[in-house]
């Protein structure tokens, strides 16, 4: 079976707030799936339904092939859920905390191995209240892994961490995938989702706006790429300031697939095109024929942040 989770037409209301409004998606086994969106989009509520913590108002949810509404306890035996650190006792040590969670599991993994996996062995005897933010997050992930789950749920695992601790946590999450587990996480950092997740679902106001790999979404929704060219030896005598001679701009604008040419303040030309690969070949051909000389050439695509802006008309963190 290649599917870890199936969600069909999921609806969850809190009185008059529709927190999740008809969401459908599947998560494949062994992938890192990210639910992205701003605060209040419905990510946590969706996760809580998948974890069997909240009953949906409508829709079908299957986790590890089990209907969550009918058999929430069977689902709980197959998943690992990262608790926010409010769930820890500050005076217990790291080893004692993981040991406590191990005592709840039917087939616990060895505590020492988990501490090593999460780089917590040096903190084994440290009380939880003395850990840094990144160490606490790693501890909560160790506790989520203690029951040897097939599917691991992480709700905003990197929120509040500095960039270095975030990067360290990405390595942890990739290592969890390498063990063959499925990871479902939420984040409101689009660049994190782009770097970390195999596939993402973008949520806003309880709805799923887009679903796919980060690159698929970027290519589908933002087809135009920017090709940066920095020509050399093309400024006409006396034209100063690194200006590019108009004939060059005209020639580039005439290349097949180029929809626009802009000029940056530092002597680059920016070519907009939906066919960056063939344009790169054209430019290389021009250079080979001696009609164009350039000192740098690079392609930039949009980001998931731009995808969100395209879909909603606003930035994620306005
Ligand atoms: N227990 C609750 N009772 C009432 N309303 C709630 C409850 N939990 C969430 N909501 C509301 O449901 C909507 C979705 O919230 P949810 O926490 O699922 O979003 P989120 O995308 O996870 O946001 P965040 O990133 O802030 O956690 C919001 O409007 C929120 O105010």
From TrEMBL:
CDD domains reported for this sequence: ABC_subfamily_A (cd03263)
Organism expressing this protein natively: Geochorda subterranea
Presence of the UniProt keyword Nucleotide-binding in the record: yes
Listed Pfam families: ABC_tran
Keyword entries, A-Z: ATP-binding, Nucleotide-binding, Transport
Domain of life of the native organism: Bacteria
GO molecular-function terms, A-Z: ATP binding
Full protein name: ABC transporter ATP-binding protein
Annotated family: Belongs to the ABC transporter superfamily.
Domain ABC transporter: 5-230
Lineage: Bacteria, Bacillati, Bacillota, Limnochordia, Limnochordales
SUPFAM superfamilies named in the record: P-loop containing nucleoside triphosphate hydrolases
PROSITE patterns named among the record's database cross-references: ABC_TRANSPORTER_1, ABC_TRANSPORTER_2
């Amino acid at each position: 079976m290649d599917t870890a989770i199936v969600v069909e037409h999921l609806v969850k209301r809190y009185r008059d707030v529709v927190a999740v409004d008809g969401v459908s998606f599947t998560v494949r086994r062994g992938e890192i799936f990210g639910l992205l969106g701003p605060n209040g989009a419905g990510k946590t509520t969706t996760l809580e339904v998948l974890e069997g913590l909240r009953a949906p108002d409508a829709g079908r949810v299957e986790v590890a092939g089990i209907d969550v509404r009918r058999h929430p306890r069977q689902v709980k035996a197959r998943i690992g859920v990262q608790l926010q650190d409010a769930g820890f006792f500050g005076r217990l040590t790291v080893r004692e905390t993981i040991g406590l969670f191990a005592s709840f599991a039917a087939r616990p993994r060895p505590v020492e191995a988990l501490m090593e996996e999460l780089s917590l062995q040096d903190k084994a005897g440290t009380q939880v209240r003395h850990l840094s933010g990144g160490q606490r997050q790693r501890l909560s992930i160790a506790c989520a892994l203690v029951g040897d789950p097939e599917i691991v749920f992480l709700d905003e695992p990197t929120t509040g961490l500095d960039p270095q601790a975030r990067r360290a946590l990405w390595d942890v999450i990739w290592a969890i995938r390498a063990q063959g587990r499925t990871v479902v996480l939420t984040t409101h950092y689009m660049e994190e989702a782009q770097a970390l997740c195999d596939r993402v679902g973008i949520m806003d106001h309880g709805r799923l706006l887009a679903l796919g790999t980060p690159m698929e979404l970027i290519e589908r929704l933002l087809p135009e790429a920017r090709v940066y060219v920095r020509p050399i030896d093309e400024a006409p005598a006396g034209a100063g300031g690194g200006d590019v001679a108009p004939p060059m701009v005209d020639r580039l604008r005439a290349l097949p697939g180029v929809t626009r040419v802009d000029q940056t303040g530092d002597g680059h030309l920016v070519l907009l095109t939906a066919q960056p690969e063939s344009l790169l070949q054209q430019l290389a051909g021009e250079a080979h024929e001696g009609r164009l000389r350039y000192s740098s050439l690079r392609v930039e695509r949009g980001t998931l942040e731009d995808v969100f802006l395209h879909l909603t008309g606003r930035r994620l963190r306005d």
